[in-house]
Each structure stands twice: as C-alpha cells, then as structure tokens.
Design brief:
Two copies of one chain form a homodimer. The first copy, chain A, is mostly helical. The first copy, chain A, is 63% helix and 5% strand. In chain A, helix 1 packs across helix 5 and helix 3 packs across helix 4. Chains A and B meet through helix 1, helix 2, helix 5 and helix 6 of A and helix 1, helix 2, helix 5 and helix 6 of B.
Chain lengths: 115, 115
C-alpha cells in the first residue's frame, strides 16, 4: 500500500464500491448495516472497505462501539482537487481543439441548396 | 487491477513516481531515457510505470519504435474532476466551519489593555 497521503487517497478511491459508499455517505452518516444492505455485501466486506476509507481519512467513525456510524470526511478530496488543478488547462485545451475540429468539419460540409 | 475506467485512473495516480512522470510530461513529451534520468530509475522500472499510465489513458506513446516519446493525455483527469465536483460542497463547508471556529476563538481572546 502507498505511504504518502495523496497516494493513499487515490488508492482508496480506486474501487467502485468504495466510491459508492462515499456517495451514500454524502447523503448522511450510516452504520455498517445500513451500508451493507443496498450493496448486497457481507458485513465483513463492508467493514474492510470502511477500514481503507478510514485509513485514507475519507471517513470517520462514531465512538459507540456497537453502531459506529461512518461519516464522510472530504478534506483529502480537496487535496486531490488541488493536485488536479495543474492539469485543468490540458483537458480544457484538448476539448477546445475538439470544438475547433467540429467547427472545421461543419464549414467543409456542402451547404444545403436553396429552393 | 480494477476494471472500470475511473478506478483505473485512480489506481494509476496512486503512486508518487507516476504523478511525478505526469508532472514532467506536463512540460512536454519525453522519451523513456529522458524520464529515467531525473528519477534515478532503471529503464525497465520507468517502462513499467509508463505502461500503467498508458493503460489508464493518461499518456500516449509515439510510434517510432526506438524513441516512443510519451505525451500527457489529460482527458481521464477531467473525469476525476467531474467525479470530485459532487464533494466540493463538503470540503468547502468544512473549511467554512474552521473559519467560523477561528473567528469565535479570536472573539474570546482577552482584548489588549489600553495604556
């Protein structure tokens, strides 16, 4: 497993079930039981995913031993957003090139004849 | 290895060397040799990282067999950015709460006495 914080965050996000758990938690905190139900997963499987998310700082757990509701912690996602910002101009540039290409193709199309 | 596209992107980004390679490529395309030098890595080690990045669609490689310069492809990063957008309100809210707390602490501090 990666040791630096940003790598830990990326590794935790590299799983569709863990991203679905975060999406569920974005609507409010939930217990392991509540999380297991919609995913049709065993409690140990959900617990394992929650441990990865907690280790990456993406969720926190309540203190009541029996329930321990999980809650979204979005701060590591801000670090991902900050890291991404450097690259924004690249994807914006590539979409701009695509737009220009589409415009060029439109210009080349024969114009409809006048009736 | 994860099979969905977004998970592949996150997994590829979960390594500080691969992120450093992307940062280098954001300044222009580079060959394996040029990439290996600053990282003091073996060519096979760099090649392995490039394969992960290429598989995730984060770089493309030139066609000349001998050089095959690598080039940044930022489109998958846009998907990460789109995915993150849902969570922006959470980290912005938590920083707003922190600001409010700091303001509250400031208010509670004893005012300096007038001389």
């Amino acid at each position: 497993m990666p040791t630096d914080r940003l790598s830990q965050t990326f590794a935790a996000l590299a799983d569709p079930t863990r991203r679905a758990i975060l999406a569920r938690l974005s609507t409010g905190e939930a217990t392991v039981n509540e999380l297991a139900e919609p995913f049709e997963m065993s409690l140990p499987a959900v617990s394992k995913h929650l441990k990865v998310l907690e280790h990456a700082g993406l969720i926190s757990r309540g203190r009541e031993a029996q329930w321990r509701p999980a809650r979204l912690q979005a701060e590591p996602l801000k670090d991902v957003s900050d890291w991404l910002e450097t690259y924004r101009r690249f994807w914006e540039a590539s979409f701009a090139r695509l737009d220009a290409l589409i415009e060029e193709l439109k210009q080349k199309q024969p114009k409809p004849e006048k009736k």
